[in-house]
Amino acid sequence: MRQGAVALLIAVAALTSCSTESVSPPASAGAAATASTATKAPTATKTSATGAPAAAAPAGKAPSGNLPVKVRKLRLSRGKDRPLPTTVWYPATGEGPFPVIVFSHGLTARPGDYGRLLTRWAGAGFVVAGAAYPHTSAGVADFDVIDLINQPADASHVLTEVLALDTRAGDPLRGRLDGEHVAAAGHSGGGITTIGMLSGDRDDRLDAAVVLAGRQVLPVPFSGPAAPVFFVHGSLDRTVRYADGLAAFDAVPWPKAMLTIPDGGHVTTDGGDFSLVATATTDFWRWSLYGDTAAKRRLEGRRNVESDL
């Protein structure tokens, strides 16, 4: 762990103030049509990183349209010293079950800073949970970049707690969560956290991942069961270099794709990049978690997407 901490400190010393996107309100309840939900297909057997390539995503179709979205807060923690206040974005209508995505914010950010993107994902038929990490989120008194080492376990804990709502009597998400199709995503330091969940701190439940402006710095990269990974990176990113994001992409031994934002900086979900990033990542989720092959074709047909899915 000491060796990993030193490597992490060197690698992310420049990540002292990761930029975040602006917050936008959730979609209104009347703004979207009711979407049809797919019948859950059997999940293909996964393989280890050293074994045969991963089997194809489950065959199915993602919900159509744009579902209205609700937002709720959960008071979670992983022990008394690791509070993890969590925001959940989820479809307000539709029976589900809906795949679950755990999202990790960048340094000095909060989950709500990514509300515009996470609302988009939820409206497409996903339940998205993002925790504010105890030592790297905005406003903490004891900011510590090295605490990124502990965040993969935090994210896994949040995923466990959210999935438990599927069987909790009276909960709005009871019976609406698809525990067989789960994923992780994150931006910048949160991208490092997400890669950590696929590496030495491997969460074997993960079926897919999205890494926004992230890089690999933790030991034992990309271990355990195979899972497709989608990278998004700006070519002019000065906080996490594009070359480092590309190196992480190259290191993935499983199905993978990468969207390069030409002349894009570190905030790949802001400004004019938002529509492109939101649409591409949503299509990746539709394919990897619902098995929607039409979404995969759209994703691979985009400019500046390198794909080995």
Question: Summed up, what is this model?
Answer:
25% of the residues lie in helices and 21% in strands.
Strand line-up of the largest beta sheet: 1-2-4-3-5-6-7-8-9
Approximately how much beta-strand content do the residues carry?
15-25%
Given as residue ranges, the uncertain stretches (5+ residues, pLDDT < 50) are 1-7, 9-14, 16-57
The name of the CATH topology is: Rossmann fold
The named CATH superfamily: Alpha/Beta hydrolase fold, catalytic domain
Tally the helices: what do you get? 7
Which class of secondary structure composition applies to the elements? alpha/beta
Q: Could you name the CATH class?
A: Alpha Beta
CATH architecture: 3-Layer(aba) Sandwich
Q: Based on CA inertia axes, which overall geometry fits?
A: globular
Number of strands: 9
Give the distance, in angstroms, between the N- and C-terminal Cα atoms: 33 Å
Largest sheet: 9 strands, mixed
Instruction: Summarize the helix and strand pattern as letters.
Output: HEEEHEHEHEEHEHHE
Average the pLDDT over all residues and give the rounded result.
Answer: 84
Compute the number of structural domains: 1
Radius of gyration: 18 Å
Helix content: 10-25%
